[in-house]
C-alpha cells in the first residue's frame, strides 16, 4: 500500500473534543427550550456538519427551531462553554512524523470554517496542513465531496489518499470517494459501527499510525517494511 495524502478528521481523531460538543448541544437545547436528549444521541452524530447533525437529532422540529438550536450551539462553542479540549496524546507527534516522511497532510471536518480556523490557531497547527475542508463549504460527510475537493486542490488521485477518522461518517466518505480509510477508536463511534465500513484497520488512537505504516505501508519515496520479511 502506498499513499501520498493523509486526510485527518479533527474532532475525536486529533482533538479530544467530545465532551465539549456534548456540552454545547445541552446548552443549545436549554437556550431554545427544547428537552435535552441523552448524551449518546449527541455523540452519535459527531462528524456530521452542524446543520445535518441538528436535523438528525430533531427530525420533528420546524426550520425555525432547528435554526435557533444551531445558533445556540455556535454561541456556546465560540463564546460561552468552557469545557476544555486538547489534542490527543501523540497527535502532534504523528503530524510531525507525517510531514517528515513526505506526506501531504489535510483535514476534512464537520466543523465550520470559523471553528476549524480557531482550533488550528489555538493548537498552532495551521501551517501543518496543505489544505482543509469544512462542512459549511461543501457537502457534509458521508458524501465524498471533501475528499474529492481536497484531492483536486492538491493534484493527488483519491486512490493515493488515506482518510483517518473516528466515525463511520469519515470512513463512508472515504469509501464513496475511492480513497482508503483507517478508523481510530478514540472518538464517538464504537468498534462495530466503524468495522461495518471495512476500513484497512482500526487503531486505538492516531498515535499508532506511524507504527502501522512502519509495518504495513510505504511512505512517499520509500519502501514498505513488514515484520514477515524481517526488513
What do you see in this structure?
By secondary structure, this protein is α/β, with parallel strands linked by helices. It folds into 2 domains: 5-16 and 86-216, Rossmann fold; 18-80, DNA polymerase, domain 1 (Orthogonal Bundle), CATH 1.10.150. Helix content is 44%, strand content 13%. It has 10 helices and 8 strands. The chain has helices spanning 18-32, 39-44, 50-57, 63-80, 91-100, 113-123, 145-154, 168-177, 191-195, 209-216; strands at residues 5-8, 15-16, 86-87, 104-109, 131-134, 161-165, 180-184, 202-203. It has a 6-stranded parallel sheet with strand order 5-4-1-6-7-8, sandwiched between helices. Strands 2-3 form a two-stranded antiparallel sheet. Strand 4 (104-109), helix 6 and strand 5 (131-134) form a beta-alpha-beta unit. Helix 1 (18-32) crosses helix 4 and helix 3 (50-57) crosses helix 4. The protein is globular. Residues 223-231 have low confidence and may be disordered.
Amino acid at each position: 500500500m502506498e499513499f501520498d495524502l493523509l486526510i485527518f478528521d479533527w474532532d475525536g481523531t486529533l482533538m479530544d473534543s467530545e465532551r465539549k460538543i456534548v456540552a454545547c448541544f445541552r446548552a443549545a437545547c436549554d437556550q431554545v427550550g427544547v428537552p435535552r436528549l441523552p448524551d449518546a444521541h449527541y455523540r452519535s452524530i459527531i462528524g456530521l456538519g452542524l446543520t445535518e447533525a441538528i436535523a438528525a437529532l430533531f427530525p420533528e422540529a420546524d426550520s425555525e427551531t432547528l435554526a435557533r438550536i444551531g445558533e445556540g450551539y455556535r454561541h456556546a462553542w465560540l463564546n460561552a462553554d468552557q469545557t476544555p479540549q486538547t489534542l490527543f496524546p501523540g497527535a502532534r507527534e504523528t503530524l510531525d512524523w507525517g510531514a517528515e516522511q513526505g506526506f501531504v497532510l489535510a483535514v476534512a471536518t464537520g466543523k465550520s470554517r470559523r471553528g476549524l480556523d480557531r482550533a488550528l490557531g489555538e493548537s498552532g497547527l495551521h501551517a501543518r496542513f496543505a489544505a482543509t475542508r469544512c462542512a459549511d463549504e461543501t457537502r457534509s460527510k458521508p458524501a465524498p465531496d471533501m475528499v474529492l475537493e481536497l484531492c483536486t486542490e492538491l493534484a493527488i488521485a483519491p486512490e493515493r489518499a488515506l482518510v483517518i477518522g473516528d466515525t463511520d461518517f469519515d470512513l463512508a466518505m472515504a469509501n464513496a470517494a475511492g480513497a482508503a480509510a483507517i478508523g481510530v477508536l478514540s472518538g464517538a463511534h464504537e468498534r462495530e459501527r466503524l468495522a461495518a465500513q471495512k476500513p484497512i484497520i482500526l487503531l486505538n488512537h492516531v498515535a499508532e499510525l506511524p507504527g502501522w505504516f512502519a509495518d504495513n505501508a510505504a511512505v512517499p519515496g520509500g519502501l514498505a517494511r513488514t515484520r514477515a520479511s524481517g526488513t
